[in-house]
Amino acid sequence: MNPITRILDEFPVIITDGAMATELERMGCDLNDSLWSAKILMEQPDLIKQVHSDYFTAGADCAITASYQSTIEGFAARGVTEAEAIRLIQESVKLAGQARDEFWAHEENRSDRPKPIIAASIGPYGASLADGSEYRGHYGLTEDELIDFHRPRMKALIEAGADILACETIPCLSEAKAITRLLEEFPGIYAWISFSAKDGRHISEGTPVSECAAWLDQHSQIAAVGINCTPTQHIPSLIEEIKQETDKPIIVYPNSGEQYDPVTKTWKGSACAMSFGKSAQSWYENGARLIGGCCRTKPEDIQAIADWARNLKTT
Predict the structure, then answer these.
(1) CA–CA separation, 121 and 67 (whole Å)
(2) Were both Cys, which of 129, 187, 249, 284 would link to 224 (CB 3.0–4.6 Å)?
(3) One digit per residue, pLDDT tens: the chain, 315 residues?
(4) Would the annotation count 62 as a binding residue?
């Protein structure tokens, strides 16, 4: 049984964590770097572990590792050997696992929540380019080329012991297909695929999200389908589009409501008017079953989700 099904059989919702980079920046880290939070794996890994701990304390049932922008190619550009790059990628899973195990050993309310799981982040090919391509998706690569790109990191994260793979901020259906085909090389391993979206109906590249959900619905190793790194106002309609085409659990973890400009690498606009916790409750009522936050969200936002989610009853 995949870990998402196992938890949702007993609990009505899985709370994922919030932004890693936002918290690292709050701690004083400079992430204006092509490696983004992966840079901190090299420099201050204890801070990554601390962020995971903070989210578990806030109520997260799932930690997403700091491997989104961790690639062998990216580390090689810094003079890191392939062996050391693989070690760093795997370290992201170990840090999350250590934080989880230490938290769970002292958690008193185990009956109210599942033991948290570790989701190994697999960012899109575009993230490795550090030029905002994950919000466009027009790579000019074949599915086979995308498979070759993703294979070493996926293998490393699986061997590190991740519970599930978080294939996130995927901008195009071709990359989702490549990842799904690659998963077949690892029987018994499950992943969720969450897309970045440009509006309430289409993923970033322009494909209708309903078409993506329909294709992924046919593949048993895909444990959940959804949206992340997208403004909150698009989430309700995206959930509606997805649930028309699949019975798989729907995962949503949008940004705080502000919009990212990949050219200037800055955030514009303001956070959503409704509190993140109340917005998340509406997403649950729409049909989402894995809910958390992406960029610019904080442990307080995850706590706001937990405040109502812990009172739900499994139907």
Answers:
(1) 5
(2) 249
(3) 899 999 999 999 999 999 998 999 999 988 777 676 778 998 999 999 999 999 999 999 999 999 998 889 888 888 889 999 999 999 999 999 999 999 999 998 899 999 999 999 999 999 888 787 878 888 989 999 999 999 999 999 999 999 999 999 999 999 999 999 999 999 999 999 999 999 999 999 999 999 999 999 999 999 999 999 999 999 999 999 999 999 999 999 999 766 655 554 555 555 554 689 999 999 999 999 999 999 989 999 999 999 999 999 765
(4) no
φ, ψ for residue 16, nearest 5 deg: -85, 170
* Per-domain residue ranges of the chain: 3-309
**CATH no. of 3-309:** 3.20.20.330
Asked whether residue 295 is marked as a ligand-binding residue, the answer is: yes
DSSP string, the chain: --HHHHHHTTSS-EEB---SHHHHHHTT----STTTTHHHHHH-HHHHHHHHHHHHHHT-SEEEPS-TT--HHHHHTTT--HHHHHHHHHHHHHHHHHHHHHHHHT-S-GGGSPPPEEEEEE--HHHHHTSSGGGT------HHHHHHHHHHHHHHHHHTT-SEEEEEEE--HHHHHHHHHHHTTSTT--EEEEE-BSSSSBBTTS-BHHHHHHHHTT-TTEEEEEEESS-GGGHHHHHHHHHTT--SPEEEE--SS-EEETTTTEEES---SS-HHHHHHHHHHHTEEEE---TT--HHHHHHHHHHHTT----
